[in-house]
Amino acid sequence: MKVLIVGGGGREHAIAYCVNKSSQVDKLYCVPGNAGIAEYAICEPIGAMEFDKILAFAKEKEIDLVIVGMDDPLVGGLVDVLEDAGIKTFGPRRNAAILEGSKAFSKDLMKKYNIPTAGYENFTDAKKAYAYLETAKFPIVLKADGLALGKGVLICQTLEEAKAGVKEIMEDKKFGDAGNEMVIEEFMTGREVSVLSFVDGNTIKTMSSAQDHKRAGDGDTGLNTGGMGTFCPSPFYTKEVEEFCNQYVYQATVDAMKAEGRPFKGVIFFGLMLTPEGVKVLEYNARFGDPEAQVVLPRMKNDIVDVMMACINGTLDQIDLEFEDNAAVCVVLASDGYPVSYEKGFEITGLDEFKKQEGYYCFHAGTSFDNGKIVTNGGRVLGVTAKGANLKEARENAYKATEWVKFENKYMRKDIGKAIDEA
């Protein structure tokens, strides 16, 4: 098969790593890709939102399978464009990707189908949002409705802070059109767990659980980011939690989307909160999480192409997902200053170390080539992932591996997986 991956981050590198292992794949392409993905794939400088160019490229190269990794092209309808041209594509169509594309839609869906989530209200009028806040309990959570690179969520401790947040999202348009509508929801306490799942429109098969670290600084301080590291599996995702979610969350979501005339095929990411009152859904994503994919996918035993084709063909019920009996931890190496402002273009050294040892991976997120050298080209630069017999060993291995990599302005959190000690 000839396979094309759309995207250029750490998630797409993890997907490319798995696709490259498939015995069915002869040729792998990626648009736009990055310096790490280029090890397995032929990368072309086509943007993920350049649908016409992607379609023309897929036709020219006679691509058998396109895998759309990123949220923007999914929500924008790239799968529709490719499928309508007869090209098999892994990912939800536009009317199903709304599950991530609109937080107001997903909250209303959960309410309608009794899927447990936090209490909330949707607003398209800033004045009504201000009025609602006058009667609200604090802390409270504000969410821009649309895609905002994982940064459109504000947790506000006071009325003044919340009003400033509404102004930022709805009036100042800090997140652009994503803030045309917003969700104000009750603040939930508890531990977060991420569960990725494969879906074929009817059947859902969940992958191993994980936990992300969203804040930029140690101790969960600082601004929200796209994710600073993750571990897998989560010791807090117990058999009881899994059984509850199987009954009230996972299949219920797939059935709800089908009932709404929006059958979902691809990956649903369930962001869960384990609250004192029980499990509640924090958010949905319509694709692999990043950096969750970097710890979940290296532990998967299945041929990823088999699983993706089963999702497309509606035969996922015939697949048994299998994962290694171990653990993995990913520590993100970022450019100092992320997620606000940072410099690019610094040479990265030490990457060859990962080829010398089994169970260590370096997934590129923001890298490019400059005169044959690999240089930094983003806020999140690399995801250093390591396996271990258990979570503590995996964490030790991951932090050991971060020392192999050198670049100017390298920044990372020192406490990824600290929660493991409390388990």
From TrEMBL:
Metabolic or biological pathway: Purine metabolism; IMP biosynthesis via de novo pathway; N(1)-(5-phospho-D-ribosyl)glycinamide from 5-phospho-alpha-D-ribose 1-diphosphate: step 2/2
Catalyzed reaction equations: 5-phospho-beta-D-ribosylamine + glycine + ATP = N(1)-(5-phospho-beta-D-ribosyl)glycinamide + ADP + phosphate + H(+)
UniProt entry tagged with the keyword Nucleotide-binding: yes
Cofactor field: Mn(2+); Mg(2+)
Domain ATP-grasp span(s) in chain numbering: 107-313
Pfam families in UniProt: GARS_A (PF01071), GARS_C (PF02843), GARS_N (PF02844)
A molecular function GO annotation: phosphoribosylamine-glycine ligase activity
EC annotation from Swiss-Prot or TrEMBL: 6.3.4.13
Highest taxon listed in the record's lineage: Bacteria
Keyword hit for tRNA processing: no
NCBIfam families: purD
Family statement: Belongs to the GARS family.
Protein name per its UniProtKB record: Phosphoribosylamine--glycine ligase
Gene: purD
